[in-house]
Design brief:
Layout (H helix, E strand, L loop, with lengths): L2 E5 L4 H12 L3 E6 L2 H15 L4 E5 L5 H14 L5 E4 L18 H23 L3 E6 L22 H22 L5 E7 L14 H8 L7 H4 L1 H8 L10 E3 L2 E3 L8 H18 L1
Parallel strand pairs: 1-2, 1-4, 2-3, 4-5, 5-6, 6-7
Antiparallel strand pairs: 7-8
Helix pairs in contact: 1-2, 3-4, 4-5, 5-9
């Protein structure tokens, strides 16, 4: 049985992705923050798919030491990872916040969690034939910029900039990851899911979140939003597109920073330095 790990799997796109993978015979490992919500989602997925091979791991993805502990559990419990779907993300409120490890919250959850979890699970991915890493990004990258001297927005913080930066970094990370795993039997993809009507932004009172909430009637369903994630997990013979950014199941042009080898490598190196400092 193939194994997929999905972060942020108890609601929205992550839950729908988990359900679709379960329908296709995968054992799904749901990495979630809230036990009660995770248990409820697990019961729903089992009832709707008939697949009871659904596991839960609880992790606060804003904390690097918890990600390392969770990765230890994965390495001890699973011998293969066919699909790693880095899906979990947040839209913060209007105030800049730092985690107890000193990282800006959006940067920690939306970028560093992708980076560290993938790095920690790489030994298993390398041992799994035709493994894939799927990173959920967003066209909100248009609000972001790569400034290595202000990655965590100590200066000029705003919700839209913090979120936009993190989604740009997802695409840049994927571009560099594809280079790092070149020659190995692993591929990596990033994607824009569309603007999806989920509980995303529910806890934020920023103007960006209010603007987002106003448009809910016109947004995609989680089922529609998960289509490209599921496509990148299941579609055969797309390995040659490793490193690409997808929208509506098609590769599209990446932002400038994600096409700069120098910028992508710089983000990778800084992320490694942060891991060394916080774990």
């Amino acid at each position: 049985m193939k194994t997929a790990i999905v972060t942020g799997a108890n609601s929205g796109i992550g839950k729908q992705t988990s359900k679709s993978l379960a329908e296709n015979g995968y054992r799904v490992v749901m990495i979630c923050r809230n036990r009660e919500k995770a248990d409820s989602a697990r019961r729903e997925i089992i009832a709707e798919t008939g697949n009871d091979q659904i596991d839960i791991l609880i992790c606060d993805l804003s904390l690097m030491h918890q990600i390392e502990k969770t990765a230890d559990t994965v390495r001890e419990s699973y011998s293969q990872i066919d699909r790693l779907v880095n899906n979990a993300g947040i839209l913060p409120d209007g105030q800049r916040k730092e985690t107890e490890e000193g990282l800006e919250l959006t940067f920690a959850v939306n970028h560093m969690a992708y980076f560290l979890l993938t790095k920690e699970l790489m030994p298993i991915l390398e041992e799994t034939p035709s493994a894939r890493v799927v990173n959920v990004a967003s066209d909100a990258h248009r609000y972001g910029e790569f400034n290595p001297d202000n990655l965590q927005l100590e200066r000029g913080y705003s919700t839209s900039k913090a979120y936009g930066n993190s989604k740009l970094f997802n695409i840049m990370f994927t571009s560099q990851l594809a280079k790092e795993i070149e020659g190995k039997d692993i591929s990596a993809f990033s994607l824009h899911p569309g603007v999806v009507n989920t509980n995303f932004a529910a806890d934020s009172d920023s103007w960006f979140a209010k603007f987002f909430n106003l448009g809910r009637l016109f947004m995609r369903s989680p089922e529609k939003g998960a289509e490209t994630s599921v496509y990148l997990c299941l579609e055969p013979d797309i390995e040659h597109l490793s490193g690409s950014y997808f929208r509506d199941k098609q590769p599209v042009k990446k932002p400038n920073s994600a096409r700069s080898d120098e910028d992508c490598k710089r983000l990778w190196d800084i992320s490694n330095e942060i891991v060394d400092r916080t774990t």
